Amino acid sequence: MKKFITLALIFSAFLAQAQAPTLKAGQPAPDFKLKNVDNKEVSFASYPDAKGFIVVFTCNTCPYAKAYEQRIIDLDKKFKPQGYPVIAINPNDPEASKADTFDKMQDLAKEKKYAFPYLFDKGQIVTDQYGAKHTPHLFVVSKTAKGTVVEYTGAIDNDPEGTKDEKTKYVEDVIASLKNNQKPAITETKEIGCTVKRKAKA
């Protein structure tokens, strides 16, 4: 019985991922309108002067998300003045992850003094549109004449444990290329983190 339950959980996780392929570089980046921890709705249109966005699917609970938290704060601090603000979205269903409720998101954002929005994705609609699979899972998006476009998807850097003295800073390299009107050399890496938490199907 235990083996059957384990196989069922693995199949469910596989099915959830199969239903929502991850967006790749060159594909349109869907806009959204989600509730921020300040109870206001946020979308790309909230940033009319932005050149693009650092959209990161992260959460309260995952050890990897916690390890990357300060680096996400630093990305926003560095790149928001340059036209690339961070927009954080919690992809976890609060019924499946009790510490990822909206109230607890508010508590975390206040405790850590987030200067960027931390959005609640009710029904995991935006999570599925982007195909976010783990926390953190990051997308660099640029504004173009044809609309918002994905430029990069994957990890923030190559140091999920936060132990390397020398890091390959994927996101910073991507934005440096975009600012020089160049296509990034690397457009996709493997995101490292916890799987997105979904409530069990009835």
TrEMBL record:
The keyword Iron does not apply. Residues 23-176 form the Thioredoxin domain. Keywords: Signal. Coiled coil: none annotated. Residues 1-18 form the signal peptide. It comes from Flavobacterium pectinovorum. This is Peroxiredoxin. One of its GO terms (molecular function) is antioxidant activity. It holds the Pfam family AhpC-TSA.
